[in-house]
Amino acid sequence: MSRFSHSHLPRETFLDFESGEDKEAIRCFQHCDKKTNILCLSQIPRICPLCRQDVTKTESLIPPFRLPSPLTKAKQNPFSVVVKPTIGNFLKDYQNSSNLHIGLTNSKGIVYDFDEHGIHVGSSSWNLCVTATLIQNITQQTLNVWDNLLNQFSQQVDWSPQRYDEEQHNCFTFVMEFFKFSQLLEAIPAATSKKEFIKEFLLPYTQKTKMYIAMYRQIAVKGYLCQPIH
Ligand SMILES: [Zn+2]
């Protein structure tokens, strides 16, 4: 059971917009007021919260469309750093104090990550993650080299469960050490220090994500969110 429900409105007051894996995506539409966006999830409110008209019987100024989300599937993000909460997912479970887990994707978006159980390859739990693409212009050569290096590197004894240490030798160490090992990212200053990396690569994404999560949670409680356009 999700801990969010449309507690303010009965189930039948919503129309199913779409089902399946995109259920969590935020939709936006304008019904009667071009200065107010109405945000919702996969079920759009049947009654417009602004004019109280039935949205199935009246025309919307802008029909529902999906808002771009900062959370994507690792599979869609090759050559990237991927981040998600250690436990659960960003939308439902993440709190400011939550621990985060970090990994790297290969050319096919398969995630390599390190934790107390050692290296994981291709874990399926990376469906809602923050991603930062490391290499933009990929040549066939880079592609092969990256995948080979990532394979080689993850097989090193450094990444056995026995070597894991929550503070000193963790998922983040795996990522930063791979940057050194691969030497492919020498031109990126952020790849040389943890502090720089967080500032340059992760913070811009995490701010956007926090706003998106806050919006998602408000909608999940109420069923919709009216957002005035300034
Ligand atoms: Zn309306």
UniProtKB/TrEMBL annotation:
<dbReference type="Pfam" id="PF16044">
    <property type="entry name" value="DUF4796_C"/>
</dbReference>
<dbReference type="InterPro" id="IPR053921">
    <property type="entry name" value="MKRN2OS-like_C"/>
</dbReference>
<dbReference type="InterPro" id="IPR032016">
    <property type="entry name" value="MKRN2OS-like"/>
</dbReference>
<dbReference type="InterPro" id="IPR053922">
    <property type="entry name" value="MKRN2OS-like_N"/>
</dbReference>
<feature type="domain" description="MKRN2 opposite strand protein-like C-terminal">
    <location>
        <begin position="64"/>
        <end position="219"/>
    </location>
</feature>
<feature type="domain" description="MKRN2 opposite strand protein-like N-terminal">
    <location>
        <begin position="28"/>
        <end position="54"/>
    </location>
</feature>
<protein>
    <recommendedName>
        <fullName>MKRN2 opposite strand protein</fullName>
    </recommendedName>
</protein>
<dbReference type="Pfam" id="PF22795">
    <property type="entry name" value="DUF4796_N"/>
</dbReference>
